[in-house]
Amino acid sequence: MVNIFKNTILILLIYLADIIYGQGVKRLNDPAIVAQHKRMTFESWGDWRPYPKYFLGIQTNFAYATVWGMWAPKINREYKDGADIRPLKPNGEQNLRLAQLKFQEEEATKIKATSDSIYNRSVQDLAHWTSATVDADPLWLLYYKRMLKPITEFPDIPKNFMEWRLKDQQTFEALSNTGTLKRLQEELNIIKDTYLMSRSIDIPRGKRFIMYHQTLIRWREFLQDLRRHNDKTTLLLDYKNILKIHLPTTLPPQSAAGSDRQIIQDVMEKYKHKY
Fold first, then answer.
1. Residue 219 and residue 148 in contact, taking contact as beta carbons nearer than 8 Å
2. Comparing 79 with 272, which gets the higher pLDDT?
3. Contacts (Cβ under 8 Å, ≥6 apart) of 157
4. What sign for the dihedral angle of Cα 107, 109, 113, 118?
5. How is the chain split into domains, by residue range?
6. Which residue of 52, 107, 146, 161 could cross-link 172, Cys pair, CB 3.0 to 4.6 Å?
C-alpha cells in the first residue's frame, strides 16, 4: 500500500512539472536558419541572412559581418559566392543519386529476369543434354524409336545366311569369298556404333536427333546395298546353274564357240522363252 502511494505521488509530480515547464518553451524561428534550410532543399539558392546594414558606407550589422562579411571565415564567403550546390535541385547530387539508384534497381530487375531465364533454360538444356532422359523425348517416342528399332534387331556379327537375310547358303558363301560380307560387316559396325553413341553420350537435343537421322539414312543405304548384292549374286548363281545343266561338259574350240560373253548371250537367247 505504501509503494502504491509513493508511485502515485511521483506520477503527479512529473505531471505538474511537465505542465509548468512546458508552458515556458517557446518555438525558435531564426530567419537565418530558415534561409539555410531553403538553400539545402529544392526551393532556392540565396537569401543570405542576416542582411547587411550600412551607415555612411560602413557595415553596421555585426552578425552579417561575422557570417558573410569581411570578418566571416573564408569558407563562408566562398560558399556564398560559389555555385548553386543544392543537393535537391533538379540536377543536384541527391537527385542524381536517387535517379541512379532507380536506374540500378531497374537494371537489377532486368539482370535478375535474365539470370532466371538463363537458369530455367539451363535446366531445360540439361534435361535435353543428358542421356538419362533420351527415352522420354517425344520425337524419339513418336518416330525414331520405331524407325531405328531394326538396327537393334539386326545381329551385331551375323554368322549365316539367315542372319544376313540372304537367299541361301550358296549366296552367303559367294559373298563371303569375294569379300563383300567383310565390307558390309564394317559398315554395320559403324552404324551400330553411331547408334550407340547417339543413345549414350551427353549432347544437345538437336545434335542427338541429327545423329539419329544420319544413322537412319546410313541404315537404309546399308539395306539397299545388301539387297542389291543378294539379288545380283543370286542371279549370277542361277545363270551358272543353268549353264551347268544345259551346256555340254566339253566346250567346242574357242574359235568356234567365241568368247564367254558370246556363250552367255547364246544361252540366254536359246532359253529366253522357256523360263
1. yes
2. 79
3. 185
4. positive
5. 136-250+258-268
6. 161
